[in-house]
Specification:
This protein is an alpha/beta fold and about 375 residues long. It folds into two domains: about 260 residues, 3-Layer(aba) Sandwich (Aminopeptidase), CATH 3.40.630.10; about 110 residues, 2-Layer Sandwich (Alpha-Beta Plaits). The chain has eleven helices and 16 strands.
Length: about 375
C-alpha cells in the first residue's frame, strides 16, 4: 500500500498523539483540552494560522500553498462518548464515564499527520483549511461551525471527511455518490389518560393500552404507507409507564428514532405519526401528543467530488480496495451540514477486525492513521496541483 514515505516516517508520532487523545476524552462542545493539544501540535508543524473558539471549542487551521488558488477543507471530529471504557489498554481513558469509542481520536491523528506533511512540503497551490470540529455525537457541531460562517470566513470551496470502520477490510475505502448516511430524527409521544385500580379498568382511560396500540400502528408506516424499496427506519426505543402491578397509571411515554434519506418521506412519516396519535388517542379515550424533532440531515455526497476522492483513494489503496457503490447507511453524521454548505465527499476507511463503534471495548487501529493521512495529503495535492 503506497502510504506516502514522509508520513510513514512519523507513524509512531501519530500513534503517540492518538493515544494521548484517547486517554483524555471530552464530550460534545466541551473539547477545550483536546483543542489545545491539537493547536499545540499544529503550532509545532508551522501552520500559518490557527483560529480557535469556533463552535465553542472547535478550531480551523490554515496552511498556505505555493501561489494563488482556492481553499480545500479537511475535517476531523474531536468529541468522545459517555461510555465507561473496557479496553484495558495502558492508554485507556483517564476520565471516568468518557471514552473515544467512535475513533475520533484516530480521525484527529490522521488529520494531524496530513497537516504535518502539508506544512512541510506545501506541494499545492491555494490553501488548505484543517477543520477540527466538536460535538459530532451530540449537538451538531458541524452545523454550528457552518452557522458561525467558516465557509465564507475561510473561503472554503470543497470539503472532505473520513470515518474509520471496524469490520471493513483494513486499508480499504468505501463511499457512494448521493446519500450515504441518513437523516436522524427523534420523536416522543406523551399519552395522558385517567388512572385507577388495576382491578377496575372500566373506570379508567388506560394510557398503557393506547401506547401499545400506537407502537404497533407506527410499524405500519414502513410496511403500508411507504414504497418497500426505499430506505426508512422507524424504531420505538423507549416505553415508560406505571409504578405497580395493581395500578393503571395516568400517563405513558414512548420515544424513538426515524431514519430517512428523502424529505418527502420524512414529511410523510411526520404526518402519519400525528394522524395515528390523534386517531388512536380518540379511539382509546386518551390524549396522545406527538413531539417530533428533526435532527441531522442526510449526508449527501457530491457525485463529482466523490469520484475525485475515489480516484485519490485508489492511488493510496489500489483499484480493488476502493468501493464507490457502498450501500448507504441508516446511521447519521453531522458532516451532512458541511455538505449542505459546500460540495465534497465522505468516505469510510476500513480498520480491520475489532469491536464495533460505540462499544466499550472499541479501540482505533493505529496502523490506519498513516493511510488516512496519506489520503488527505494526496487529496490536497491532486485537487490543487502546482503548475
Amino acid at each position: 500500500m503506497p502510504i506516502l514515505n514522509r508520513i510513514a516516517a512519523f507513524a509512531d508520532e501519530m500513534t503517540a498523539w492518538r493515544r494521548h487523545l484517547h486517554a483524555h476524552p471530552e464530550l460534545s462542545f466541551d473539547c477545550h483540552e483536546t483543542a489545545a493539544f491539537v493547536a499545540a501540535r499544529l503550532h509545532e508543524f508551522g501552520v500559518d494560522e490557527i483560529h480557535a473558539g469556533i463552535a465553542k471549542s472547535g478550531l480551523v487551521a490554515i496552511i498556505n500553498g505555493q501561489g494563488e488558488g482556492p481553499t480545500i477543507a479537511l475535517r476531523s471530529d474531536m468529541d468522545a462518548l459517555p461510555i465507561e471504557e473496557e479496553t484495558g489498554t495502558l492508554y485507556a481513558s483517564e476520565n471516568p464515564g468518557k471514552m473515544h469509542a467512535c475513533g475520533h481520536d484516530g480521525h484527529m491523528a490522521m488529520l494531524l499527520g496530513a497537516a504535518k506533511y502539508l506544512a512541510e512540503t506545501r506541494n499545492f497551490k491555494g490553501r488548505v483549511a484543517l477543520v477540527f470540529q466538536p460535538a459530532e455525537e451530540n449537538g451538531g457541531g458541524a452545523g454550528v461551525m457552518v452557522e458561525e460562517g467558516i465557509m465564507e470566513r475561510f473561503g472554503i470551496s470543497q470539503i472532505y471527511g473520513i470515518h474509520n470502520t471496524p469490520g471493513q477490510e483494513f486499508g480499504t475505502f468505501a463511499t457512494t455518490p448521493g446519500p450515504i448516511m441518513a437523516a436522524a430524527d427523534t420523536f416522543e409521544v406523551h399519552v395522558q389518560g385517567r388512572g385507577g385500580h388495576g382491578a377496575m379498568p372500566h373506570e379508567t382511560a388506560d394510557p398503557v393500552v393506547a401506547a401499545v396500540a400506537i407502537v404497533q400502528a407506527f410499524q405500519t408506516i414502513s410496511s403500508r404507507n411507504h414504497y418497500a424499496q426505499d430506505d426508512l427506519v422507524i424504531s420505538v426505543t423507549q416505553i415508560h409507564t406505571g409504578s405497580a402491578d395493581n395500578i393503571i397509571p395516568d400517563t405513558a411515554f414512548l420515544g424513538g428514532t426515524v431514519r430517512t434519506f428523502d424529505t418527502a418521506v420524512q414529511k410523510m412519516v411526520m404526518g402519519r405519526m400525528a394522524a395515528l396519535c390523534e386517531g388512536l388517542g380518540a379511539a382509546y379515550g386518551v390524549e396522545a401528543v406527538l413531539k417530533y424533532e428533526k435532527g441531522y440531515p442526510p449526508t449527501v455526497n457530491d457525485a463529482a467530488k466523490t469520484e475525485f476522492a475515489a480516484t485519490v483513494a485508489r492511488e493510496i489503496a489500489g483499484d480493488s480496495a476502493v468501493n464507490t457503490d457502498s450501500p448507504r447507511e441508516m446511521g447519521a453524521e453531522d458532516f451532512s451540514y458541511f455538505l449542505e454548505a459546500r460540495p465534497g465527499a465522505f468516505l469510510f476507511l476500513g480498520t480491520g477486525p475489532g469491536a464495533g463503534l460505540h462499544h466499550p471495548a472499541f479501540d482505533f487501529n493505529d496502523a490506519a492513521a498513516p493511510v488516512g493521512a496519506s489520503f488527505f495529503a494526496r487529496l490536497v495535492e491532486r485537487a490543487q496541483p502546482l503548475g
